[in-house]
From TrEMBL:
EC number(s) from the headed UniProt entry: 1.1.1.22
Name of this protein: UDP-glucose 6-dehydrogenase
Keyword Oxidoreductase: yes
Family statement: Belongs to the UDP-glucose/GDP-mannose dehydrogenase family.
Protein residues bound to substrate: F153, L154, R155, E156, K211, F256, L257, N258, A259, G260, G264, K329
Database matches in SMART domains: UDPG_MGDP_dh_C
Organism of provenance: Mycolicibacterium poriferae
Annotated Pfam families: UDPG_MGDP_dh, UDPG_MGDP_dh_C, UDPG_MGDP_dh_N
Domain UDP-glucose/GDP-mannose dehydrogenase C-terminal, chain residue ranges per copy: 322-423
Length: 445
């Protein structure tokens, strides 16, 4: 099929390359020329494992191209995916869907043959219906332009696998346009469907909500275990063993029960807030008041982390703190609402000398927090540190050698903000170890 993917951020760039991998002819569309010329030369504007190689291969195959011209995209494609950002509005909880609206306003008037638009961005429920009406009112083909919603569930760091082997495909369609949007979606994803990926055909609102509810559930699961971690600390119990015990229950599952610094990034925090805001607009605010608590348990992790560092150093003023990790999660260079960077900033503002190291997120971190100290390796960051804090669970940090590090730091104090280290190894090497909600938060003997 010939398709356009509008927006070439994490979502759009991945979707475009993966659709080309499935054999489709794909045109990635963006207004940012600098980004496009990088993508054309096979260079990624962000880090995602495997995506640079895949994009290069697809560009070389001739099945993937990039343009800033909506005319070209409208002329080229029979199906148009919308993958632009829907960030949190400044000073409000609601999502800003203006980028989506402006894409429809630019693209729809240029679509002059029957076509299908499939929205992928995460949107407040009701948006798809509005965008469908807007697109049809602006296109010369009117109702021959169909719009469905096909939310994306990919995770950063696993984006290619999540796109090519998703847990499910959800396609929301309007009653009177169901047939066409469904047929196009089935053709786009034919290979995935042949592999047995479940296909759920819903109305537009259900599809939009399926995405928002999934992220709200994941956020709730993380905050649940973090709240339990606080109780574990009070009771002298171990939240990691407890999560294992819960996880064996197939009704619960072990995933997303890692207690620690909590969730960040460009999705979960803004999505739960946008969900609350939209529920309020629809008169259902009460249904989601629990998400406020989910949000505040999560934000509390960051201040608790600063408190733990403070306790460990005696006082922050003049303390040397090595911060390992700046990305919001491993295998990503994304620092949007990153708990790690947020904590690093707070530590510095309270007088500590902070040295940050992250395997991939250095440039993005510097751009956001130019005043923090940055090191070129984990060992350099730990040089003369009074305390080392692991805030993103990169493999490189999980594999750090406590004996080697002991010779570099000023004091052997490790705070494991992601409960990703083996306490016995660190304690055995003479370190004082602290995790979140862990019984093993103690010193050797
Ligand atoms: C999330 C969802 O998992 C995807 O399904 C969704 O498509 C995406 O948002 C989106 O809306 O675009 P992502 O933000 O890439 O994906 O990352 P996650 O793997 O969900 O992690 C989010 C945050 O939760 C990270 O900061 C991570 O460190 C934290 N987390 C995750 C925990 O603190 N504990 C856990 O057990 C799991």
């Amino acid at each position: 099929m010939k398709m356009a993917v509008v927006g070439t951020g994490y979502l759009g760039a991945t979707h475009a390359a993966c659709m080309a991998r499935l054999g489709h002819e794909v045109m990635g569309v963006d207004i940012d020329e600098a980004k496009l010329s990088k993508l054309r030369s096979g260079e990624m504007p962000f880090y995602e494992p495997g995506l640079e190689e895949l994009t290069r291969e697809m560009v070389a195959s001739g099945r993937l191209q990039f343009t800033s011209s909506y005319e070209e995209a409208a002329e080229f494609a029979d199906v148009h995916f919308l993958a632009v950002g829907t960030p949190q509005k400044r000073g409000e909880f609601a999502a800003d869907v203006s980028a989506l609206e402006s894409v429809i306003k630019l693209l729809a008037p240029l679509i002059n043959r029957p076509a299908v638009i499939l929205g992928k961005s995460t949107v407040p429920v009701g948006t798809a219906q509005e965008m469908r009406a807007l697109a049809r009112s602006l296109s010369p083909v009117g109702d021959d332009l169909e719009l469905g919603w096909n939310p994306e569930f990919l995770r950063e760091g696993h984006a290619i696998k999540d796109t090519l082997e998703p847990d499910r495909l959800v396609v929301g369609v309007a009653d009177d346009g169901a047939g066409r949007a469904e047929a196009v979606a089935r053709e786009v994803y034919a290979d995935l469907l042949a592999n047995g990926v479940p296909f759920l055909l819903t109305d537009l609102a259900t599809a939009e909500l399926a995405k928002t509810a999934a992220n709200a559930f994941l956020a709730t699961k993380i905050s649940f275990i973090n709240a339990i971690a606080e109780v574990c600390e009070a009771a002298g119990a171990d939240v990691v063993q407890l999560a294992d015990a819960l996880g064996y229950d197939s009704r619960i599952g072990r995933a997303f029960l890692n207690a620690g610094l909590g969730f960040g990034g460009g999705c979960l925090p803004k999505d739960i807030r946008a969900f609350m805001a939209r529920a309020g607009e629809m008169g259902a605010a009460q249904a989601l008041t629990f998400l406020r608590e989910v949000d505040s348990i999560n934000m509390r992790r960051r201040t608790q982390m600063v408190e733990m560092v403070k306790q460990s150093c005696g006082e922050l003023l003049g303390a040397h703190v090595a911060v390992l990790g700046a990305a919001f999660k491993p295998d990503s260079d994304d620092v949007r609402d990153s708990p790690a960077l947020n904590v690093a900033g707070q530590l510095q503002l309270q007088g500590a000398t902070v040295n940050v190291y992250d395997p991939k997120a250095m440039d993005n971190s510097r751009a956001l927090f130019p005043t923090l100290g940055y090191s070129t390796s984990a060992l350099e960051a730990c040089d003369n540190a009074d305390v080392v804090v692991v805030l993103t669970e990169w493999k490189e940090f999980r594999n750090l050698d406590p004996v080697e590090l002991a010779g570099i730091v000023r004091q052997r104090k490790m705070i494991d903000g992601r409960n990703c280290l083996d306490p016995a190894r660190w304690i055995g090497a003479g370190w004082q170890y602290r995790g979140f909600g862990r019984a093993s938060s103690r010193t050797a003997n």
